[in-house]
Write a structure and sequence with these properties.
Elements: E1 3-7, H1 17-30, E2 37-42, H2 47-54, E3 59-60, H3 68-85, E4 90-93, E5 106-109, H4 114-117, H5 124-140, E6 143-146, H6 149-158, E7 167-168, H7 183-193, E8 200-204, H8 213-224, E9 232-236, H9 243-250, E10 258-262, H10 266-275, E11 278-281, H11 290-297, E12 302-304, H12 310-314, E13 319-320, H13 325-336, H14 339-353, H15 358-375
Parallel strand pairs: 1-2, 1-4, 2-3, 4-5, 5-6, 6-7, 8-9, 8-11, 9-10, 11-12, 12-13
Length: about 375
């Protein structure tokens, strides 16, 4: 049986995008008819979680590997040694970085090309780190996996023609979690957010320049300032770095309501996504755009942009806008004034979201593992 050592040490504590990818992929791989034998290596605090997820005892890294520099040092030394001693046929590094000398075939997942296409949208240290890691993976990994054709094509254009060999494995959603919410779930979320019966527009994601949240706020103000019953704007997700957001928030008229709850538990997300009037995600570019797919699966009318991978996810089941505040405001107002169009998008979105399957993604990963093992 093919044996795969899976490095989950880079999964962040908030279990954001890469966490959703790893947490959904592993059980899907385990249920394949020709499932590889998976051995997960992770941080000590995650051993119980991954052991339960894969029904196999996970391997813990040393306790000192918590901070990112320490984890990267261990990756280059301890992970490489563990990979050689484990008897694994393939090492999967699911978040950009890999050991320089792993001693066995290595599969690396590259999630995003915006470090190259839109470098100014990232902090300098983060930009340098991920550009360097991506170049190394394109040059040295046995196989590459990307979440979209758009990401593969951008990497080919901007990094190396070698990136054209990357295999596309679209992400998906757990429809046991992301489905249209019950009425009482939405009511509870409204109460928790202090919204009562007030309608709301939702955003989900880390507040960073790439997400274009400042222009979303300004567009929402333009679309809603003169309405008799203006919807609130709920910005859920991590607090990143984007000075334009505070400036935009400071200019909001007093009669409009902005709610910033931070991270919401995953079980509350379907009420946020399925209970909003419009899910607005005017990103400047995504490697995939998982929040768009999650919102579609929950029955939201989605408004997003046509940048990078977002049309690959949304297709004809979402509404599109430009990236400036005026365009966002006009598109948002158009949807708020068109309940029939919102219902149509909600239905189209549910149908399209069902086309994205973790079982299909897992089958693609398994084939990549086999191909990598054969190269040995």
């Amino acid at each position: 049986m093919l044996k795969v050592l899976f490095d989950a040490t880079a999964v962040p504590a908030d279990r954001g995008g890469v966490g959703r990818y790893v947490d959904s992929l592993l059980p899907a791989l385990a249920t394949l008819a020709d499932a590889p034998e998976l051995q997960v290596v992770c941080r000590p605090e995650d051993v119980w979680y991954y052991s339960d997820l894969t029904q196999r005892e996970a391997i813990a890294t040393p306790g000192w590997t918590g901070p990112r520099p320490a984890r990267l040092l261990w990756e280059q030394t301890g992970l490489a040694l563990l990979a050689r001693r484990s008897g694994a046929d393939v090492l999967h590094s699911p978040h950009y970085t890999m050991p320089v000398t792993a001693g066995l075939p290595t599969v690396v997942t590259l999630h995003d090309a915006t470090f190259f296409s839109d470098p100014d949208l990232h902090l300098p240290a983060k930009r340098y780190f991920f550009r360097s890691a991506t170049r190394h993976a394109v040059r040295r990994a046995t196989e590459l996996i990307v979440p979209s054709a758009a990401t593969r094509d951008e990497l080919r254009r901007r990094v190396s023609p070698r990136a054209a060999r990357a295999t596309v494995a679209h992400l998906a959603v757990d429809r046991g979690v992301f489905h249209p919410p019950a009425t009482d779930e939405v009511a509870k979320l409204r109460a928790d957010l202090g919204l009562s019966e007030r309608p709301f527009v939702a955003f989900l994601g880390t507040v960073e320049p790439r997400k274009n949240v400042g222009n979303l706020i300004r567009g929402w103000v333009a679309a809603c300032a003169d309405r008799a019953d203006p919807p609130a704007l709920v910005l859920a997700g991590g607090q990143g770095w984007d000075e334009s957001v505070d400036a935009a928030a400071a200019a909001i008229p007093a009669h409009l309501r902005l709610v910033r709850p931070g991270y919401l538990p995953i079980e509350a997300l379907r009420a946020l996504l399925g209970g909003c009037e419009v899910f607005a995600y005017p990103s400047l570019g995504e490697g995939f755009g998982l929040p768009v797919l999650e919102a579609m699966s929950c029955g939201a009318a989605v408004l997003t942009t046509d940048r990078l991978a977002l049309p690959e996810v949304g297709g004809d089941a979402v509404a599109y806008t430009g990236i400036d505040a005026a365009s966002i405001g006009g598109a948002l107002a158009g949807l708020l004034d068109a309940p029939d169009r919102r219902r149509q998008l909600a239905e189209l979105g549910r149908v399209r979201a069902a086309e994205f399957s973790w079982a299909h993604a897992a089958a693609i990963h398994a084939e990549v593992y086999r191909r990598a093992a054969r190269s040995r």
